[in-house]
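Tutorial handout. Part one gives the primary structure; part two gives the three-dimensional structure as tokens.
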Amino acid sequence: MSKNKNKSLVRQVQEVFKSKLRIGEAKHDAKKQGGGGVLDGIYSWNTYRGYLNKSLAFARWAKEHYGVKTLITARPYVDAYLQHYIDREYSPYTQKTIASALAKLYGCSTKDFIPTQTRHRANITRSRKGKSKVKFSEVRNQEFVDFCRATGLRRHEIKKLKPENLGFDKASGRYVIMGLKGKGGRPLEVPVLCEKAVDRIKSTPAGQLVWDRIPSNADIHSYRADYCKSIYIALSRKSPRVSVIIVVATSKE
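Part two.
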């Protein structure tokens, strides 16, 4: 605690989250080993950045309103901070995200804070993109949309995709995308579900990006959901040709 007296609240928050980084490690393995590793660890850069920003906002708020200088003295004001968002009718999702970030900051559970509002299934938006003023035309970008639905790749994965990432799985008789790093730095190996997508990758010159321009307003997450649905349907039919598809479960969003 004495060491933190000479550090700003911002620095204290940054150091806490830096110490929790587990990029490249498998969260699944940590769960199997048990203990507090899963609660303490952060396995995704997106989670790290999101939780860090939410916690920094809390630290600045606590300093401004209560003059605190350490995370320990700021801890009693977490409930008041959450109540601030509840009273202003922020979405239950936002409330829960803030609570989760602060629970990670303090190494505790969200149950240690006041309860946030509950999300109802009917109000959940499946897409991760909000409504954009610039309308995205799936008709004009049909090849890209079909490619996303055939590969299930995230935006940052598509940005790095090259022909060298295409392989062939003899056991299933399917082409697969491999060698890319997915969420949390984990290596991917996912099946390609249509020949047009395979042809697109094959026709790209070696060393070049398969997609050098990605539409900014494309709802890639929803296409990934379509991909997962196709896999689920294929597995439910117990088709022998899709046995390799089960590997996608190791790379969930």
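Part three, for discussion. The CA atoms of residues 14 and 52 lie 7 Å apart. The longest strand covers residues 174-181.
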